[in-house]
Automatic annotation (TrEMBL):
This is Zinc finger protein 316. InterPro entries: Znf_C2H2_sf, Znf_C2H2_type. Gene3D superfamilies: Classic Zinc Finger. GO terms for molecular function: DNA-binding transcription activator activity, RNA polymerase II-specific; RNA polymerase II cis-regulatory region sequence-specific DNA binding; zinc ion binding. The keyword Zinc-finger applies. It comes from Papilio xuthus. Keywords: Metal-binding, Nucleus, Repeat, Zinc, Zinc-finger. Residues 9-38, 39-69, 73-101, 102-129, 130-152, 155-183, 183-210, 215-245, 245-267 form the C2H2-type domain. One of its GO terms (cellular component) is nucleus. The keyword Nucleus applies.
């Protein structure tokens, strides 16, 4: 029996010990104490009324539409007949259902499997029945334990015996280290496994006289320009369309999903996580445009080349001479 099936909603009326596993069922039950019956029978010369719509439907089917429906609810075991399906199900459950093998000693709840009983017992004794054999972390249900065990699964490279704890990192390692690099730059000899990567690399060798295309903001009175279309899209969403990513806990808003994720770590751990500073010694890669002619981002966004800047310098020098 799972936790969602536990009857935790108790009737507060004096002398009533009824329990329910859904709040709306408790609300329907309380109507019977208050003698409120909002579902009257609409058939002629019938003054019956009920607190539950399903009870009204059962009354109409058994009392008014019995001959019309021409349905007989008969037990397949003892052939007893009943006026409606609910009464037949109740009879079968009480008289013919075989008891399940695992029974709770406290509330007599029945379970089909032993691990279900172990999860159910947490309601009574607060003991988590399942634990990880590797890190000793405890869990209420067997499903939670199985999901946790994925964290300990490792993937070993067949080529170099490197071990990874994530499938994505293992695949990335195979592509970068063991797949043949068939795209080679003729200018610097750098090799790549994918065509899109060498296309991006070749842009670093482009002549400074032909700067990259820039993307301008289409909104009036906004003169922002970006070297990437994705950056322009993010700018429009945040600055002009006022898109915000809101924290469900403290209602703080952030301009990007990444910033919101960093903020949520504060609620989880209670401290602000420090970002690890990368260097060449601990895994940072070398610059792809190393030893190549570079052009400042400011010039790219302004649409100017270095030759234009030199002309401006010459004009200024001749002006003041």
């Amino acid at each position: 029996m799972s936790n969602k099936d536990a009857k935790v909603y108790v009737c507060t009326q004096a002398g009533c010990k009824n329990k329910y596993n859904r709040p709306y069922r408790l609300e329907q039950h309380l109507l019977s104490h208050l003698n409120i019956k909002p579902f009257p029978c609409t058939w002629e010369n019938c003054s019956k009324a009920y607190s539950n719509k399903s009870h009204l439907n059962r009354h109409i089917a058994s009392a008014h539409e019995k001959e019309k429906n021409n349905i007989i609810y008969r037990c397949p075991e003892c052939f007893k007949s009943y006026s409606n399906r609910q009464n037949l199900k109740k009879h079968i459950r009480q008289k013919h259902v075989v008891s399940l093998p695992f029974v709770c000693d406290h509330c007599k709840a029945q379970c089909r499997k032993k691990h279900q009983l172990g999860a159910h017992m947490y309601m009574h004794n607060g003991v988590k029945a399942f634990s990880c054999e590797i890190c000793s972390k405890e869990f209420i249900t067997l499903y939670e334990k199985k999901r946790h065990m994925r964290c300990h699964k490792t993937y070993t490279c067949d080529e170099c015996s490197s071990i990874f704890n994530q499938w994505s990192r293992y695949q990335k390692h195979r592509k970068s280290e063991h797949c043949a690099k068939k795209y080679i730059c003729e200018d610097c000899g750098r090799a790549y496994t994918q065509r899109i990567h060498i296309i991006q690399h070749l842009k670093s060798h482009s002549n400074s006289e032909n700067p990259r295309r820039t993307f301008s903001c289409p909104y009036p009175d906004c003169f922002r320009r970006y070297s990437r279309n994705s950056n322009l899209t993010q700018h429009i969403l945040v600055k002009h369309k006022k898109l915000k990513h809101i924290c469900n806990i403290c209602q703080a808003d952030y301009s990007s999903q990444a910033k919101l994720k960093e903020h949520l770590k504060i609620h989880e751990n209670g401290v602000v996580p420090r970002r690890k500073v990368k260097s060449l010694a601990n895994g940072r890669k070398h610059r792809k445009d190393k030893d190549t002619l570079k052009m400042s981002t400011a010039l790219k966004l302004a649409g100017l080349t270095e030759a234009d800047i030199e002309k401006c310098k010459l004009l200024n020098n001749t002006k003041y001479e």
